[in-house]
Write a structure and sequence with these properties.
Blueprint lengths: L2 H14 L2 E7 L4 H6 L7 E5 L3 E2 L11 H15 L3 E4 L4 H12 L19 E11 L6 E7 L5 E22 L5 E22 L2 E3 L9 H21 L4 E8 L2 E4 L12 E12 L6 E17 L4 E5 L10 E3 L1
Parallel strand pairs: 2-4, 2-5, 3-5
Antiparallel strand pairs: 1-8, 5-7, 6-7, 7-8, 8-9, 10-11, 10-15, 11-14, 12-13, 12-15, 13-14
Helix pairs in contact: 3-5
């Protein structure tokens, strides 16, 4: 055999080592994603800590739940559909405010207490199924010849991971469950390995140690974001009247909330809040619809509107889009 052929075979072996193919199965179809679009004002949402038990709690000593909560928060922020308020780092925020209250930090620079932005909807996710496939076996076939100074080994390997999430959207005022959905994703990995044994030297390998659990987790999170958008589209956006001056009605949302000139909103006056005498929890509010307003000017943090019919409004009145 020519020398060039002897060199070509090892090069082919090296090029094929680790050749893999991954297939990820999502619970959301491309057609479903195309049907959901962000429109109207941005709803304020907060991601609660992601819960999980069993294999999740002990997976390589890594807190998967906390990591997934951070990733879900980032993913929701990147959609530009929501105003996402931080909850996973809330303890650190409160600690910084306490430094100002205790006089440790300068009152002029310390963040003021009671200014954490409230959320209209809480996003709660619990990982109910978590099946990582860290390493998988495979089949190897060897080929050798007495006329050749080397031997070839051809092998295949694969693995599968499964992640399932129970997603809930909660009313931040009452704790009522507004929307639920089970989200699951699977990731399958298949690969080919070609190894070369030349005298006492081995090139290539026949063992794969790359779990597809990362792909399954990422897909499940993307699906969860889709259902958060879908679930919140079924709820009216809500804000409040800040102040009134003559014909001008100031509302507590502006450019940062996606408010636009020409938006029409309904206004209601809260006549009574119903408090459960046993638990002390709010059962809801009795509201009286008074009319509609139309946005005429928008600033970064607030907007100005005018009444579309004759009615009186006051600070604290509820507005809905």
């Amino acid at each position: 055999m020519k020398f060039s052929s002897l060199i070509a075979i090892p090069l082919i072996a090296i090029s094929l080592v680790g050749c893999k193919q991954q297939t990820v199965k999502s619970s959301v179809t491309p057609e479903q994603r195309a049907e959901i679009a962000c429109s109207g004002p941005k709803m304020r949402v907060a991601v609660m800590p992601v819960g999980g038990t069993g294999k999740l709690g002990s997976f390589e000593g890594y807190d998967i739940g906390e990591a997934m909560a951070s990733q879900l928060t980032t993913a929701l922020e990147q959609t530009d559909c929501f105003i996402v308020t931080e909850r996973t780092a809330l303890a650190h925020i409160l600690r910084e405010q306490e430094l100002g209250l205790a006089g440790v930090a300068s009152p002029e620079t310390a963040p003021r207490a009671g200014r954490v932005a409230g959320a209209q909807v809480l996003v709660k996710a619990d990982i109910t199924e978590f099946e990582p496939q860290q390493e998988s076996g495979g089949l190897n076939i060897g080929l050798a010849s007495g006329s050749l100074p080397f031997g070839l080994r051809l092998g295949g390997s694969g693995g599968t991971s499964h992640v399932a999430i129970n997603l809930r959207l909660l009313d931040a005022s009452t704790g009522q469950v507004l929307f639920t959905k089970r989200v699951e994703a699977d990731s399958k990995s298949r690969g080919l390995a070609l190894g070369l044994d030349f005298k006492h030297i081995t090139v290539g390998g026949d063992k794969f140690y790359k779990t597809p659990v990362g792909q399954a987790t990422r897909t499940a999170l993307n699906d969860a974001v889709f259902y958060v958008i879908k679930g919140t589209r079924q709820l009216p956006w809500q804000g409040q009247v800040v102040s009134t001056r003559g014909q001008h009605i100031f509302i507590n949302a502006g450019l940062d909330s996606g408010i636009k000139v020409g938006d029409v909103m309904n206004v209601s006056t809260v006549t009574e809040e119903l408090i459960d005498p046993e638990s002390g929890l709010s059962l809801g509010k009795i509201e009286n619809a008074v009319g509609q307003i139309k946005v005429t000017s928008v600033q970064e943090k607030f907007a100005i509107a005018s009444a579309m019919n004759s009615f009186k409004t006051q600070r604290g009145d509820v507005i809905r889009y």
